[in-house]
């Protein structure tokens, strides 16, 4: 993954639109378009391999609209500029998290010492349970 290319693509290719936001802010909210709606065409995402792009498409399927755009909103702050920074950072971090492909697990065998510890623990528990039994006399 090329983080720099991804950052440039998100900053340059994202289409931003603005709307009136709800929530706190008083008259400012009623007068100013502070909510930021960001849409990034999926084909414009750069810096990812084919496997990473497939992972992003699969994991962020609920954020991709019918036009093939990754869509996010931000109305966290009272100012448009703050919401613009938030939505761009959020979009980049969502893509990075979705593109992560975990490395394959290497199969290992338990060590001799760990096998012996396991058997000792089993014997100890067996002894505890054995001591709980009532002694039967003939």
Brief account:
The protein is an alpha+beta fold and 138 residues long. The protein is built from five helices and three strands. The protein is elongated, with a radius of gyration of 28 Å.
Descriptive account of the structure:
The chain is of the alpha+beta class. Helices cover 49% and strands 13% of the residues. It has 5 helices and 3 strands. Strands 1-2-3 form a 3-stranded antiparallel β-sheet, covered by helices on one side. α1 (3-13) packs across α4 (80-99). The longest helix is centred in the C-terminal third of the chain and has 21 residues, at 112-132.
Outline the biggest β-sheet: 3 strands, antiparallel
Query: Radius of gyration, Cα only, in angstroms?
Result: 28 Å
Shape: elongated
What is the N-to-C order of secondary-structure elements (H for helix, E for strand)?
Answer: HEHEHEHH
């Amino acid at each position: 993954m090329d983080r720099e290319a991804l950052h440039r693509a998100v900053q340059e290719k994202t289409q931003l639109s603005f709307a009136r936001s709800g929530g706190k802010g008083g008259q400012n909210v009623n007068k100013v378009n502070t909510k930021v709606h960001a849409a990034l065409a999926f084909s414009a995402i750069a810096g990812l391999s084919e496997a990473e792009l497939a992972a992003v498409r699969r994991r962020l399927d609920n954020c991709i609209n019918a036009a093939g755009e990754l869509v996010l909103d931000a109305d966290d702050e009272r100012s448009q500029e703050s919401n613009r920074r938030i939505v761009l950072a959020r979009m980049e971090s969502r893509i990075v998290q979705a593109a992560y492909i975990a490395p394959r697990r290497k199969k290992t065998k338990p060590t001799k010492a760990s096998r012996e510890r396991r058997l000792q623990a089993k014997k100890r528990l067996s002894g505890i349970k054995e001591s709980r039994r009532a002694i039967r006399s003939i």
